[in-house]
């Protein structure tokens, strides 16, 4: 079972050495900037490592820009940026876990990460976002154990989530448009059921 947001793990001494080659560093798009605002606490348990804030930031403010990404196929680490497009973050941002009460919004149109609107970010807070806000249909669904009182437990992307729950979260445009597309399909279905009425309306327009 995936375990998310275990908070009491000490930072492991097994943390990998950062690449000191400056050329590589430049190619990863400001990795050092990320690591001045974000700390990864590593866990030997699967999926239990996580990112924590090194800064205070106001609700709604920009936390960081997203740089150094590369196009990818859908994996458990990729982030969706459009109806059919995915990227790998290629930075420690990959340690931002899912939470049903997230601290951040990953805006994959602007390539910007913001603090959620309702709550200031404090030093030491887990850096989390709501995975269905970017992911339509996840490569690796999991049973969420985030501890939020509104925890939705089975997280499998927006496609498979209750629409009323989704409505409570900030969502990326590509998720909103995929939802609208799906609604459109449903509306067409209902229209087909009301075909007689539609034909009458059409007849009136002729
Ligand atoms: Zn949860």
Describe this structure in words.
- The protein is of the alpha+beta class and 206 residues long.
- The chain has a single domain, classed as Beta-clip-like, CATH 2.170.270.
- 24% of the residues lie in helices and 17% in strands.
- The protein has five helices and twelve strands.
- The strands form five sheets. It has a three-stranded antiparallel beta sheet with strand order 3-9-8, with no helix packed on it. The protein has a three-stranded antiparallel beta sheet with strand order 4-6-5, with no helix packed on it.
- Strand 1 and strand 2 form a beta hairpin.
- It is globular, with a radius of gyration of 20 Å.
- Zinc ion (ZN) binds next to loops.
From the N-terminal CA to the C-terminal CA, the straight-line distance is: 61 Å
Q: What CATH architecture do you see?
A: Beta Complex
Measured by DSSP, the beta-strand proportion falls in 15-25%
Strand order in the largest sheet: 3-9-8
Q: What sort of overall outline do the alpha carbons produce when their principal axes are compared?
A: globular
Name the average pLDDT.
82
Bound molecules: zinc ion
List keywords for this structure.
single chain; 206 residues; alpha+beta; Beta-clip-like; 3-stranded antiparallel beta sheet; 5 helices; 12 strands; disordered N terminus; disordered C terminus; binds zinc ion
